[in-house]
Amino acid sequence: MNTNMKIGATLFCYGTEYARYEYDFEECVKQAALAGATGYEIVGTQMLPSYPNVSDEFLGLVTRLKETYGIGPVSYGANNDRGMRHDRDLSDDEMLADTIIDLKTANALGCKVMRAQYMLSPSAFERLAPYAELYDVHVGIEIHNPETPTSPKMMEYLAVIEKTGSKYLGFIPDFGCFSIAPNKPQWMKALQAGVKEEHLQMAADMRYAGVDIEEARAKLTEANAHPAINGVLQGMYGFVQFKSKEQLPALLEGMKRIMPYCFEMHCKFHYLDENCVEASIPYPEIIAAIKETSFDGYLICEYEDELYCGGTEFTKRQIKQLETLLSE
């Protein structure tokens, strides 16, 4: 079994503290180091003052913090914003040009991996290969819920990777795509807003059964569910959707199939209890599957703070969970 994986954290974990001016960039790096991360991801749009470029001043800060806390950036989170203009979507040429700027920034920061998003089309992704090789940065398309390792859209990127033969094009799976239960923070907020548990369970059961969202909404309205359930329902059919546990083995096999092209993993987590157990994402099964492969890159902890309580404690719990699972 492979246990050579490294554990890191994206500074996005501390996004709430950062947005509230409780932490500056240095404090985010310090907290990641204290939590046990051996490297960090930086999301450019969030923490680079001169985004999309990086200044010499900021590079100096990164170097100083690495000397102080022992960790530096290992991955760069790029944002592929096709809708930044008000009058039209960006063309593939424009998206490619923006991504090349991201590559230059990632290279300057010393990152060997860059997260790209599937707003960057497969054809633009294919054209990116020589630039990724030039800047020595491996670009992974993020497989983010509701996509999965075997969804048609991801198969288009796989075809590009296999066609180019480039070692610099690949994937970054986000573990949210393996969810097998409803999102706990959204569930908790719905209860606080007055939604009844029975109606939440009714919504979850319909999602598991594959009921169409409009039909599910109509049935919940019929049952006099609190209107606040609509936000939860949208999530169940959107970016925090989930599948039955019976579907998990096939999803994990799909991940194993693309593992030779995976540069890092985004260890998404929404809620961890005191025993370091994620409420909706089956970490024991996921990590066990990865350990059966030759993957030896970074497991990057990524906290989605839907409760706006800050990521400091949860990131410590997540790293502890990963350390435990890797040692088993």
From TrEMBL:
* UniProt xrefs under InterPro entries: IolE/XylAMocC-like, Xyl_isomerase-like_sf, Xyl_isomerase-like_TIM-brl
Q: Which keywords describe this protein according to UniProt? A: Isomerase
Q: Which Pfam families match?
A: AP_endonuc_2 (PF01261)
From what superkingdom does this record's organism come?
Bacteria
Q: Where is the Xylose isomerase-like TIM barrel domain?
A: 30-306
Q: Tell me, what is one Gene Ontology molecular-function annotation carried by this entry?
A: isomerase activity
Any idea what this protein is called? Xylose isomerase-like TIM barrel protein
